[in-house]
Amino acid sequence: MDTVTTRKISFQHELHEIHTVGTELSVTVTAKASVVREWLSSRLYFRQQYVRRKRLVVGLGVQWTGGSDSPADTLQLCVGRRCLIFQLAHAKSVPKKLRTFLLDASHTFVGFWNHLDRRKLESSEHGLEMVRDPLDLRRYAKTEDGDDLTQASVEEIVEKCLGFEVEQRSEISMSNWNDEYLSDDQIAYATIDARCAFLIGRKSRAWERTASGVLGLIVPTLEFHRFTRIDERLILVFVSVRDDKIDLDLTDIHKREG
Predict the structure, then answer these.
(1) Which tens digits make up the pLDDT trace of 177-191?
(2) Contact predicate 28/9, CB 8 Å
(3) How far is 100 from 120, CA to CA, in rounded Å?
(4) Exposure winner among 37, 38, 127, 161, fewest CB in 10 A?
(5) Cβ neighbours of 74 (radius 10 Å)
(6) Distance between CA 162 and CA 142 in Å, rounded?
(7) Which Pfam families does the entry link to (predicted)?
(8) Under 8 Å CB-to-CB from 4, ≥6 apart: which residues?
Protein backbone atom coordinates (compact mmCIF):
# COMPACT_ATOMS: atom_id res chain seq x y z
CA MET A 1 0.00 0.00 0.00
CA ASP A 2 1.42 3.39 -1.00
CA THR A 3 1.34 6.08 1.66
CA VAL A 4 1.63 9.80 1.01
CA THR A 5 2.99 12.15 3.65
CA THR A 6 2.88 15.91 3.14
CA ARG A 7 6.11 17.47 4.37
CA LYS A 8 5.74 21.07 3.31
CA ILE A 9 3.21 23.32 1.66
CA SER A 10 4.04 26.81 0.44
CA PHE A 11 2.44 29.23 -1.98
CA GLN A 12 4.81 27.90 -4.66
CA HIS A 13 4.70 24.14 -4.25
CA GLU A 14 3.86 21.09 -2.18
CA LEU A 15 6.54 18.62 -1.14
CA HIS A 16 5.40 15.07 -0.43
CA GLU A 17 6.97 11.78 0.54
CA ILE A 18 5.60 8.57 -0.91
CA HIS A 19 6.52 5.26 0.67
CA THR A 20 6.17 2.36 -1.74
CA VAL A 21 7.77 -1.09 -1.78
CA GLY A 22 10.22 -0.09 0.94
CA THR A 23 11.35 3.01 -0.96
CA GLU A 24 10.84 6.63 -0.01
CA LEU A 25 10.22 8.98 -2.93
CA SER A 26 10.34 12.77 -2.79
CA VAL A 27 7.61 14.38 -4.89
CA THR A 28 7.33 18.06 -5.77
CA VAL A 29 3.89 19.26 -6.89
CA THR A 30 3.86 22.75 -8.37
CA ALA A 31 2.49 25.15 -10.97
CA LYS A 32 5.43 27.55 -10.58
CA ALA A 33 8.05 27.82 -13.33
CA SER A 34 10.78 28.75 -10.84
CA VAL A 35 10.24 25.54 -8.84
CA VAL A 36 10.41 23.45 -12.01
CA ARG A 37 13.64 25.20 -13.01
CA GLU A 38 15.22 24.46 -9.63
CA TRP A 39 14.08 20.83 -9.72
CA LEU A 40 15.60 20.28 -13.16
CA SER A 41 18.85 22.01 -12.20
CA SER A 42 19.17 19.76 -9.16
CA ARG A 43 18.44 16.56 -11.08
CA LEU A 44 20.85 17.42 -13.89
CA TYR A 45 23.57 18.29 -11.39
CA PHE A 46 23.28 15.07 -9.39
CA ARG A 47 22.96 12.98 -12.56
CA GLN A 48 25.64 14.77 -14.56
CA GLN A 49 27.66 11.59 -15.07
CA TYR A 50 24.67 10.08 -16.89
CA VAL A 51 24.09 13.29 -18.82
CA ARG A 52 27.71 13.35 -20.02
CA ARG A 53 27.51 9.72 -21.12
CA LYS A 54 24.09 10.31 -22.74
CA ARG A 55 22.52 7.73 -20.46
CA LEU A 56 19.99 9.88 -18.63
CA VAL A 57 16.69 8.01 -18.33
CA VAL A 58 13.61 10.04 -17.40
CA GLY A 59 10.29 8.50 -16.42
CA LEU A 60 7.62 10.66 -18.05
CA GLY A 61 3.85 10.71 -17.78
CA VAL A 62 1.05 13.04 -18.81
CA GLN A 63 -2.42 13.28 -17.29
CA TRP A 64 -5.49 15.01 -18.69
CA THR A 65 -9.18 15.29 -17.94
CA GLY A 66 -11.81 14.15 -20.40
CA GLY A 67 -11.49 12.67 -23.87
CA SER A 68 -8.60 12.16 -26.23
CA ASP A 69 -8.84 15.74 -27.54
CA SER A 70 -8.18 17.29 -24.12
CA PRO A 71 -4.81 18.99 -23.52
CA ALA A 72 -2.37 17.93 -20.83
CA ASP A 73 -3.24 19.02 -17.28
CA THR A 74 -0.08 17.68 -15.65
CA LEU A 75 3.39 16.58 -16.66
CA GLN A 76 5.21 14.23 -14.34
CA LEU A 77 8.92 13.49 -14.47
CA CYS A 78 10.98 11.08 -12.41
CA VAL A 79 14.75 10.76 -12.16
CA GLY A 80 15.99 8.48 -9.41
CA ARG A 81 13.92 8.90 -6.25
CA ARG A 82 12.92 12.46 -7.09
CA CYS A 83 9.68 13.11 -8.94
CA LEU A 84 7.99 16.25 -10.22
CA ILE A 85 4.32 16.86 -10.96
CA PHE A 86 4.03 20.08 -12.94
CA GLN A 87 0.46 21.40 -13.02
CA LEU A 88 0.39 22.78 -16.55
CA ALA A 89 -3.28 23.70 -16.34
CA HIS A 90 -2.51 26.19 -13.56
CA ALA A 91 0.95 27.36 -14.65
CA LYS A 92 1.30 30.95 -15.79
CA SER A 93 4.53 30.16 -17.62
CA VAL A 94 6.95 27.36 -18.44
CA PRO A 95 10.69 27.73 -17.82
CA LYS A 96 12.98 27.69 -20.83
CA LYS A 97 15.00 25.02 -19.03
CA LEU A 98 12.07 22.61 -19.28
CA ARG A 99 11.64 23.27 -22.99
CA THR A 100 15.36 22.66 -23.54
CA PHE A 101 15.22 19.54 -21.38
CA LEU A 102 12.37 17.99 -23.39
CA LEU A 103 14.08 18.82 -26.69
CA ASP A 104 17.44 17.30 -25.73
CA ALA A 105 17.96 14.28 -27.99
CA SER A 106 20.50 12.78 -25.58
CA HIS A 107 17.84 12.27 -22.88
CA THR A 108 15.75 9.10 -22.98
CA PHE A 109 12.12 9.63 -21.95
CA VAL A 110 10.14 6.50 -21.12
CA GLY A 111 6.60 5.66 -20.04
CA PHE A 112 3.60 3.38 -20.56
CA TRP A 113 0.71 3.58 -23.02
CA ASN A 114 2.03 7.01 -23.97
CA HIS A 115 1.31 7.37 -27.69
CA LEU A 116 -0.75 10.51 -26.94
CA ASP A 117 1.64 12.16 -24.47
CA ARG A 118 3.65 14.20 -26.92
CA ARG A 119 0.55 15.50 -28.68
CA LYS A 120 -1.09 16.33 -25.35
CA LEU A 121 1.89 18.44 -24.31
CA GLU A 122 1.92 20.25 -27.63
CA SER A 123 -1.80 21.01 -27.40
CA SER A 124 -1.53 22.42 -23.88
CA GLU A 125 -1.73 26.16 -23.36
CA HIS A 126 2.07 26.31 -23.15
CA GLY A 127 2.76 24.30 -26.32
CA LEU A 128 5.48 22.06 -24.89
CA GLU A 129 7.44 20.18 -27.54
CA MET A 130 9.47 16.98 -27.31
CA VAL A 131 12.33 15.99 -29.59
CA ARG A 132 10.57 12.66 -30.24
CA ASP A 133 7.86 10.45 -28.78
CA PRO A 134 8.77 8.95 -25.40
CA LEU A 135 9.55 5.24 -25.57
CA ASP A 136 6.57 3.04 -24.74
CA LEU A 137 8.01 0.39 -22.45
CA ARG A 138 5.31 -2.08 -23.44
CA ARG A 139 7.29 -2.61 -26.62
CA TYR A 140 10.84 -2.55 -25.28
CA ALA A 141 10.78 -3.86 -21.71
CA LYS A 142 12.24 -7.35 -21.41
CA THR A 143 11.19 -10.18 -19.11
CA GLU A 144 13.12 -13.33 -18.23
CA ASP A 145 10.48 -15.42 -19.98
CA GLY A 146 10.38 -13.22 -23.05
CA ASP A 147 6.70 -12.35 -22.51
CA ASP A 148 4.91 -10.10 -24.97
CA LEU A 149 3.92 -6.99 -23.01
CA THR A 150 2.43 -4.90 -25.80
CA GLN A 151 -1.11 -5.28 -24.42
CA ALA A 152 -0.14 -5.53 -20.75
CA SER A 153 -1.29 -3.14 -18.06
CA VAL A 154 1.15 -1.06 -16.05
CA GLU A 155 0.60 -3.40 -13.10
CA GLU A 156 1.50 -6.45 -15.20
CA ILE A 157 4.58 -4.82 -16.69
CA VAL A 158 5.86 -3.70 -13.29
CA GLU A 159 5.30 -7.12 -11.71
CA LYS A 160 7.01 -8.98 -14.56
CA CYS A 161 9.93 -6.57 -14.96
CA LEU A 162 10.52 -5.33 -11.42
CA GLY A 163 9.10 -8.16 -9.32
CA PHE A 164 6.72 -6.16 -7.14
CA GLU A 165 3.07 -5.16 -7.27
CA VAL A 166 1.54 -1.73 -7.72
CA GLU A 167 -2.09 -0.69 -7.98
CA GLN A 168 -3.05 1.92 -10.56
CA ARG A 169 -6.83 2.28 -10.36
CA SER A 170 -8.68 3.42 -13.47
CA GLU A 171 -10.94 5.75 -11.49
CA ILE A 172 -7.87 7.72 -10.42
CA SER A 173 -6.57 7.84 -13.98
CA MET A 174 -9.92 9.25 -15.15
CA SER A 175 -10.31 11.73 -12.29
CA ASN A 176 -10.10 15.53 -12.48
CA TRP A 177 -6.45 16.35 -13.11
CA ASN A 178 -7.35 19.98 -13.65
CA ASP A 179 -8.00 20.40 -9.94
CA GLU A 180 -5.77 22.98 -8.29
CA TYR A 181 -5.20 20.69 -5.32
CA LEU A 182 -4.48 17.11 -6.34
CA SER A 183 -5.55 14.34 -3.98
CA ASP A 184 -3.13 11.94 -2.31
CA ASP A 185 -4.39 9.20 -4.63
CA GLN A 186 -3.67 11.32 -7.69
CA ILE A 187 -0.20 12.23 -6.46
CA ALA A 188 0.58 8.58 -5.74
CA TYR A 189 -0.78 7.46 -9.12
CA ALA A 190 1.24 9.98 -11.14
CA THR A 191 4.39 9.35 -9.12
CA ILE A 192 4.28 5.56 -9.24
CA ASP A 193 3.68 5.66 -13.00
CA ALA A 194 6.73 7.83 -13.66
CA ARG A 195 8.93 6.11 -11.05
CA CYS A 196 8.26 2.60 -12.40
CA ALA A 197 8.89 3.82 -15.94
CA PHE A 198 12.24 5.20 -14.80
CA LEU A 199 13.19 1.91 -13.10
CA ILE A 200 12.27 -0.25 -16.07
CA GLY A 201 13.87 2.15 -18.52
CA ARG A 202 17.11 2.06 -16.56
CA LYS A 203 17.01 -1.71 -16.13
CA SER A 204 16.40 -2.29 -19.84
CA ARG A 205 19.12 0.23 -20.80
CA ALA A 206 16.61 2.28 -22.75
CA TRP A 207 19.27 4.82 -23.77
CA GLU A 208 20.70 2.21 -26.12
CA ARG A 209 17.44 2.35 -28.08
CA THR A 210 17.95 6.01 -28.88
CA ALA A 211 21.76 6.09 -28.96
CA SER A 212 21.75 3.46 -31.71
CA GLY A 213 20.05 5.94 -33.96
CA VAL A 214 17.17 3.58 -34.65
CA LEU A 215 14.53 4.70 -32.19
CA GLY A 216 16.06 8.12 -32.36
CA LEU A 217 14.47 8.44 -35.78
CA ILE A 218 10.95 8.33 -34.39
CA VAL A 219 9.66 11.80 -35.15
CA PRO A 220 6.51 13.06 -36.88
CA THR A 221 6.36 12.07 -40.53
CA LEU A 222 6.63 15.60 -41.85
CA GLU A 223 9.66 16.33 -39.72
CA PHE A 224 11.83 13.46 -40.92
CA HIS A 225 12.06 13.68 -44.64
CA ARG A 226 14.06 15.39 -47.27
CA PHE A 227 13.76 16.04 -50.96
CA THR A 228 16.42 14.90 -53.37
CA ARG A 229 16.78 14.66 -57.12
CA ILE A 230 17.26 11.34 -58.88
CA ASP A 231 17.41 11.41 -62.68
CA GLU A 232 15.93 14.92 -62.68
CA ARG A 233 12.93 13.75 -60.63
CA LEU A 234 12.02 15.17 -57.25
CA ILE A 235 11.96 12.37 -54.72
CA LEU A 236 10.62 12.45 -51.15
CA VAL A 237 12.77 10.34 -48.85
CA PHE A 238 10.87 9.07 -45.80
CA VAL A 239 12.28 6.81 -43.11
CA SER A 240 10.01 4.87 -40.77
CA VAL A 241 11.05 2.71 -37.84
CA ARG A 242 9.08 -0.26 -36.58
CA ASP A 243 10.34 -3.07 -34.39
CA ASP A 244 13.94 -1.92 -34.75
CA LYS A 245 13.79 -2.16 -38.54
CA ILE A 246 14.27 0.77 -40.84
CA ASP A 247 12.02 1.07 -43.87
CA LEU A 248 13.15 3.47 -46.56
CA ASP A 249 10.45 4.80 -48.83
CA LEU A 250 11.28 6.75 -51.98
CA THR A 251 8.22 8.49 -53.34
CA ASP A 252 8.23 10.09 -56.77
CA ILE A 253 6.62 13.49 -56.16
CA HIS A 254 5.68 13.88 -59.81
CA LYS A 255 3.77 10.60 -59.79
CA ARG A 256 2.08 11.46 -56.48
CA GLU A 257 0.94 14.81 -57.79
CA GLY A 258 -0.30 13.19 -60.98
Answers:
(1) 999 999 999 999 999
(2) no
(3) 18
(4) 127
(5) 27
(6) 10
(7) DNA_pol_A_exo1
(8) 16, 17, 18, 184, 187, 188
Class of domain 3-212: alpha beta
* Low-confidence spans in the chain with pLDDT less than 70: 1-9, 11, 21, 211-258
Give pTM, 2 decimals.
0.78
User: 241 near 214, Cβ under 8 Å?
Assistant: yes
Distance CA 80, CA 125 (A): 29
For 164-178, letters b (16+ CB in 10 Å) and e give: eebebeeebeebebb
Q: What is the pLDDT of residues 122-169, one digit of tens each?
A: 999 999 999 999 999 998 877 777 788 888 999 999 999 998 888 899
How far apart are the C-alpha atoms of 29 and 198, rounded to whole Å? 18
CB neighbourhood size of 19 (10 A)? 14
